[in-house]
Write a structure and sequence with these properties.
This protein is α+β, with helices and mostly antiparallel strands and about 190 residues long. It has 6 helices and 7 strands; from the N terminus they run ααβββββββαααα.
């Protein structure tokens, strides 16, 4: 287990669709070590999620976890540690919501994009067990963001470039209204 460097935008691994894993592959020491590295790295940099290609590995593995009081995302509801292997997402309805997102691979940039308000996510956990869960609001957005990574898509591909802002400018001019608006999603 170790904290690894996060790959930055411009590296081709972020633009490739990640390869699915077999049950045998999931159980391998290399994949289990990768999962531990994803968790350690995500926690060290206070992310909400991290995909394997962000560590330079084009494999369909991602983790999501939002700890209470996360300093990077204090407005996000807590999400228990979720290890997703070969995840798929199904929108539940047509309702979309505008979310302001950032990414560990796109340093100091945020932007607004549309995400499905409610989704079903199906995946294998780190033991290879099938999972089927419903997600809503900002949590649904986080899961969509990580699965996008595994498909070679970055949030900047979906965001309105007119809304791009640094973290400082987001905090100064947009954060208060955004937090007020997304609080309504979670109720």
């Amino acid at each position: 287990m170790s904290v690894r460097d996060v790959v930055a935008i411009g590296d081709p691994v972020l633009r490739r669709r990640a390869r699915e894993l077999s049950l045998q592959g999931i159980a391998s020491p290399q994949i289990q070590r990768l999962i531990d590295d994803l968790i350690d790295t995500k926690r060290a940099v206070h992310g909400a999620g991290l995909a394997a290609n962000q560590l330079g590995e084009a494999l369909r593995v991602a983790v999501v976890e939002v700890e209470e009081g996360n300093p990077r995302y204090p407005y996000k509801p807590p999400v228990p540690l979720t290890v997703m292997i070969n995840p798929t997402i199904e929108p539940l309805g047509d309702e979309m919501v505008e979310i302001n997102e950032s990414c560990l691979s796109v340093a100091d940039l945020r932007g607004n994009l549309q995400r499905h308000l409610a989704i079903r996510v199906r995946y294998l956990d780190r033991l290879g067990r099938e999972r089927d869960e419903l997600k809503r609001g900002l949590t649904a957005g986080t899961f969509q963001h990580e699965v996008d990574h595994l498909d070679g898509i970055l949030f900047v591909d979906r965001a309105d470039p007119r809304t791009f802002a640094t973290w400082e400018q987001f905090d100064r001019h947009q954060r208060e209204e955004f937090v007020r608006r997304v609080a309504e999603l979670e109720s």
